[in-house]
Predict the structure.
Amino acid sequence: MVLAVNARANSDAVRFSENVNLSLRRTVHLLLRANGDSATAIPPVSQADAHTFSVRMENMLDYDKLPETLQQSLAAYHIDQPYTVTVLDCDSGTVQLGYQFFDLRQPGGVPCAGRSREARCYVLQVRFTPAQQPAKTAGNSWLLISVGGALAGLGFIAWNRSRHKKEQSPMPLPETVPASRLAFGQSWLDTASQTLFDSATTHSLTFREAKLLALFAKNTNQVLERDFILKSVWEDEGVTVGRSVDVFVSRLRKLLAADPHVKITAVHGVGYKLEAHS
């Protein structure tokens, strides 16, 4: 069973690397096309580690087009992990520009936007934030590593029991609630870490799950029209799929099932509403 889990993890890592590779090549291609360049060859994408990728961009930099083009390319290959972008000088390796994924949602946009840049060789480097492992519940999960040896198995069981006890204790909101935390019912969402908390467990969300839940949490007990949800969560990513709303609402319902004070209801022919009460 351990071999099967490792094989699946390796396969996921390979697919992720391939999709990032294609996304970066698509980004450079579109930036070259925007500059009227259809002849410059796109060099291979380099991978420094499991989360860091880079590609050279010759004779170019339309920095204002980079954030949107890159995000649309990543969305096209279903990559929704947060990331940090660094633009380096090819010769000196010094950092010329950069921004974080979360800057895309800030009112002022990404840093240094709107400033002219000399067209020369740059290296586009993208580092993805490693996905957080979802919280595990007690039970039979220790079987996954039992073949690793008696000592390892006993250590895992002791740790799992200890953590489970902590998860069962209430998790109240801090007295001073950061702006990144949205409370509803007996749950709250940390938008910065894309983590959902309730009184017993935590759940790591994907980018779009967190974005959709944040939209609901900011508009509790209000009906949100389907078109409004699509435009708010998907359209600015370059991907608009009508059934996406239903699929992601279904996911959120499962994640929120442990909180009886929260429910996402469908309003026929209109959209959805997050009902929350104390």
Observations:
- Residues 21 and 74 are 10 Å apart (CA to CA).
